[in-house]
Amino acid sequence: MLRFDHVTKQFGGFKAVDDVSFTVRPGIITAVIGPNGAGKSTLVNMAAGSYRVSTGRILIDDVELQALPKHKIAHAGLSRTYQNIRLFDGMSVMKNLEVALVPPSIGSLVSDTFGFGGRREAEERRERCFEVLKTLGLAPFAERQAGSLAYGQQKLVELARAIVPKPRVLLLDEPAAGLNHGETEQLKQHILALRQPDLAMVLIEHDMKLIMSISDTIIVMNRGQLLAEGSPADIRANIEVQEAYLGQPGAIRDIEAAARGRRNRVRLREGEGLTWHQP
Ligand SMILES: Nc1ncnc2c1ncn2[C@@H]1O[C@H](COP(=O)(O)OP(=O)(O)OP(=O)(O)O)[C@@H](O)[C@H]1O
Q1: Which residues does the UniProt record annotate as the domain ABC transporter (predicted)?
Q2: Please, what's the b/e burial string for 108-118 (b: 16 or more CB within 10 A of its CB; e: otherwise)?
């Protein structure tokens, strides 16, 4: 379980994430949506240790992540993919995956990737990587240079690299960005297949069709604040959220004013299970 507990991130005087609290449960897919600049990637970057939290806590179960270095966060069970592909272009697909299995105590990715540990450990790592490549249909490309693959295949290699360490929390930052219809459909099937009882998955996406078809719960962010959370049906049914997402400022102001007049969390639509959060 991943928990954001009153998390704020300031860049100078600007709050990119402003007192956000929510929980990502295992066994389901939690989507985070919102207009450009809403603070979605900043949440991921803080959880993964790329950005320091200004105030608040981020936890996997009882382990606080916000003060840990990146490799310890990975060791605690968190994996991520990036909005922009970050593979080692000149290395084989297999090596790109093996890098993710380097024991944190070693310190040097290179020494491990190119031969650290006993033959047995190396063999086990390769077996695990190959197993994931097979699952994602990438086995034929195992020894190809990552940079030589098509864009859609590289996005899948990123996903594979995030999966090999068997994470407990998987953060996917716009995995469908730049994919065509067929590739997006394929990605959808892979993400659905990843849904397991012991994995908490966060999906940041702008592709609303994909979001609505695979998410179990949706968090709506706007201007650094958590605006609403609910099931896809709740979110779809709520015209105000749609307007906010489509960027109509009048609707956002109305929603903010409505929420400000209430204490803490309020349910505006009791029957629908949509929870509003006070900005
Ligand atoms: N390193 C940084 N320094 C200064 N400002 C930043 C930094 N990273 C993000 N921001 C700002 O924080 C705000 C939130 O950015 P973020 O990337 O989290 O939004 P997002 O919801 O992921 O947007 P998008 O959907 O466009 O990726 C933006 O205004 C952005 O310019």
Answers
A1: 2-248
A2: eeeebbeebbe
